[in-house]
């Protein structure tokens, strides 16, 4: 940080009273009855959800900015005129709602996710918000957990790439620019390991797995400059994340050099009491502050207890100063001391701009994954009459997915309209929203498309399920439609991988659309009718049945590796042990072949070039996401059977071959070793250039 900035905040700190320092450490939820005096006395450092807090109180509709300006003005009437920082969950877009983060990961295109974050920052800052509670970087291996929708799936490499791109998208090169906002890497850490997929439950993660799987996306976010971090609700290995000094201070600040501030999750400091680690509010606040946590999200316990704890000698002046300084540092970096107010005039040009919609369309298109396409049923061409049926046919806000407090249904073209607009001339589309009507009409059409899956409220915070099958009634609908025997396409909307084993075998084509956002309907039409071709890849393993989870591609081999027939091999007696669909899988409207694998050497010294030829052997142009995996055959600790180390997308014309080259660097082979240190070990490795995590051309090298 430039010396002048550090001088500025240090001088400010020197003028602050204890109350004012504690004031900076509190985030309040904005509401109409929030006491103006608390703001004028400098007792609040941040507000969450200011937009909308004063609806109906004389602010104009472009009034989100006016509302935060109203609160800001009160804060600037305080003695030292320290501005508030306004936070909100801008998770996958603001008014322009992009696909859910899990879907964005399926695009395997971190730059595109970064561009989406940049649009979200422009829109949110135009509404008076300078701080988003994103990106959500929790690795998830159990899709029963509803928050799997909010993250980028199961793989640390892919998640890390996206983490860095999204942080840069939100924050830009210069965080103080008016259209940039502070990122918050959350939920630190291990939140996705909640037992049984039940949100808020505890989890246990071994140190090597924590270091090599769960921490890397956070480290990538910190290296990309994330200004803040949020502690998770979880009790990890017996220590609630909000009180974990080793992870919050030693790792985050000590090992990684993080100099921003850490905010708790909603009331998670106070929750140290029911966790059974703190006796009362004062105890909880002390534990969190000692751990290195700087801002209390809405529980009020810092405000209520830290003053007395200081007098009683339970906390030190140094740790209080340090916390206040970190908050001031980020406010300064965000430019709030220079421009605390938002120009309300920005709302019109900056929100819902045409380019934002174009980007949302592209991202929605690239995130959808084609799972099956028997006899090239898709794209739908040459049919005279098609029935489109299912509860999603008129969908608007149902396309948004979880965490879209600022998305508006009226901004979305209803799905049926969007499909009509994209269908080829001369093709008749019939619509039916009930199974009875659909089954009746199906006899009179040439093909059927069923739009099924999960309503957005079925994923997201605490929206966990015990059954990964389709929601009630839908599999019966598919069964009945199957009986009629028309070519059948399933479009599945969901916030998680669903166990669709039966439907995958019944349907001729399956397109997994996730929750695709504001332009999802048009994007779907473009793919179904062949204006564009699908290119998404699964960022998470699809199980055959709920009982198979947790299931993920980078598992360990075991002493008796998976084998369906071996009585004493890893298996189920009632189910194949393999996933329904592996991580990295996705089809196109054409086919690709891999050949001619080459390694620049069979010994790695520093780095190695690995290349293969990829040919489009089908009749249409297509995008292939070529993936690089490695396996370390012998380690001081057991190693995953595959780990993703790179990916590249290629657009190939029919008949075209291109050589894809990856550079694998020695440090990419490092892991947490038996003695706890991080580094490589000499030995033999397998390497694959592959279309997904189960197939590919295999080579060997030694380090
Ligand atoms: C969630 C966070 C979110 C916060 C603020 C909590 O319940 O766990 O992800 O940022 O609320 O809305």
Keywords:
six-stranded mixed beta sheet, 703 residues, 21 helices, Immunoglobulin-like, alpha/beta, binds beta-D-glucopyranose, Rossmann fold, 3 domains, TIM Barrel, five-stranded parallel beta sheet
* Biggest beta sheet summary: 6 strands, mixed
CATH T-level topology of the largest domain: TIM Barrel
Q: What is the count of β-strands? A: 25
| Helix residue percentage | 25-40%
Provide the domain count: 3
The hetero molecules present are: beta-D-glucopyranose
The CATH homologous superfamily of the largest domain is called Glycoside hydrolase, family 3, N-terminal domain
Low-confidence stretches: none
Explain what the structure shows.
- There is one protein chain.
- The protein has about 700 residues and is of the alpha/beta class.
- The strands form 7 sheets. The chain has a 6-stranded mixed β-sheet with strand order 11-16-15-14-12-13, with helices on both faces. A 5-stranded parallel β-sheet has the order 4-3-2-1-10.
- β7 and β8 (about 240) form a beta hairpin.
- The two termini are about 40 Å apart.
- About 55% of the residues are buried.
- The chain binds beta-D-glucopyranose.
- Beta-D-glucopyranose (BGC) binds near residues 89, 133, 186, 265 and 266.
Short description:
With 703 residues, the protein is an alpha/beta fold.
Task: Reconstruct the topology from this structure.
Blueprint: H1 3-15, H2 18-24, E1 26-29, H3 36-40, E2 46-48, H4 64-75, E3 85-88, H5 101-106, H6 110-126, E4 131-132, H7 156-171, E5 184-188, H8 207-214, H9 216-223, E6 228-231, E7 235-236, E8 239-240, H10 245-255, E9 261-263, H11 272-275, H12 281-291, E10 296-297, H13 301-311, H14 317-333, H15 347-350, H16 354-367, E11 369-373, E12 385-389, H17 415-422, E13 428-432, H18 435-441, E14 447-453, H19 474-484, E15 488-493, H20 501-506, E16 509-512, H21 520-528, E17 592-599, E18 607-616, E19 622-632, E20 643-652, E21 657-665, E22 671-672, E23 678-679, E24 684-690, E25 697-702
Parallel strand pairs: 1-2, 1-10, 2-3, 3-4, 5-6, 6-9, 12-13, 12-14, 14-15, 15-16
Antiparallel strand pairs: 7-8, 11-16, 17-18, 18-21, 19-20, 19-24, 22-23, 24-25
Helix pairs in contact: 1-14, 2-13, 2-14, 6-7, 6-16, 7-9, 12-13, 16-21, 17-21
Bound molecules: beta-D-glucopyranose.
Beta-D-glucopyranose (BGC) binds next to loops.
